[in-house]
Amino acid sequence: MSAPSPGVRLRVHFVPVGYEVDRVVSPLRSLRADAAILFTFSRTDRVSGCLREIQNRLDSVSLQHRVIECNVWDVATIATEVGSMVASAPRHDYFFNVSTGPKTACVAGTIAGMFWPIRLYYVPVDYDSKPRFNEHDFVVRDSPVFIPTFETPPVDKTTISTLTHIMERGPRSKRELIEYLRSSGAIGPRLRASVTPQALHAQADVILRRLDAWGFIEIEGRGRALRVKVTNMGVAAAKMFNHILHPRPPPDILR
């Protein structure tokens, strides 16, 4: 299948692949999807038979699809894959099926829906029905149920580059962070040719407060003893938002 013409707006669905088939294919049809991005660990793993069946059914109705092989058991990996595509091809309408595949992938979809314009949906099935393709493939019972999400402030490049710097270099003093932020151009003179030390501290504080509010860093001590270090959540965030620092082109069907 050929890629869409440039500028065409598509209804794109992100779908983790597990042992279910109808729960994947049915909402793609009922929601009139134009393209599907199928996440799987490997084309040759234990759900490969389900993946092939899904692909065959999508081919039969000429619905474009691409397979993304990645660690579907890692929340940050799925989130950055989704974020990368949304950021590189923002004109499309995006959806995420949070009822299929590994639970970690569904959690990643829920998180992605908070940071990017993605509509999440859940597909009810009839567990009393006779399974179809395999023992896990129950018949879809009702229309997809859309799940409300809470929007969060966007994560910007300066925030993630600062977080990554701290993670790579270890705990930093405030003076060291100000030097890094100034050398990278994140802070410095705004309207005048020079800037006071107090203004630099204030500009750095804005970035640090943002990281602290997210739970990405811990600030310990005061004055010269103050140290900033990355939390476990911050390590995951640096991976989740890696595409902000290193943008990637979208799959061909989204270009």
Uncertain residue ranges: none
**CATH architecture descriptor of the largest domain:** 3-Layer(aba) Sandwich
Strand residue content:
15-25%
Quaternary structure: single chain
Task: Please report the first level of CATH classification, the CATH class of the largest domain.
Answer: Alpha Beta
Radius of gyration: 22 Å
What is the strand arrangement across the widest sheet? Answer: 3-2-1-4-5-8
Order of helices and strands: EHEHEHEHEEEEHHHEEHH
Mind explaining what this structure looks like?
There is one protein chain. The protein is an alpha/beta fold and 255 residues long. 40% of the residues lie in helices and 17% in strands. It has 2 domains: 11-152, 3-Layer(aba) Sandwich (Rossmann fold); 157-242, Winged helix-like DNA-binding domain superfamily/Winged helix DNA-binding domain (Arc Repressor Mutant, subunit A, Orthogonal Bundle), CATH 1.10.10. The protein has 9 helices and 10 strands. It has a 6-stranded mixed beta sheet, sandwiched between helices. Strands 6-7 form a two-stranded antiparallel sheet. It has a two-stranded antiparallel sheet with strand order 9-10.
Give structural attributes.
6-stranded mixed β-sheet, single chain, 255 residues, elongated, Arc Repressor Mutant, subunit A, Rossmann fold, 2 domains
List the helices and strands and how they pair.
Blueprint: E1 11-16, H1 22-30, E2 35-40, H2 48-60, E3 64-69, H3 75-88, E4 93-97, H4 103-115, E5 118-122, E6 125-126, E7 139-140, E8 145-147, H5 157-169, H6 174-183, H7 197-214, E9 217-220, E10 227-230, H8 232-240, H9 242-245
Parallel strand pairs: 1-2, 1-4, 2-3, 4-5
Antiparallel strand pairs: 5-8, 6-7, 9-10
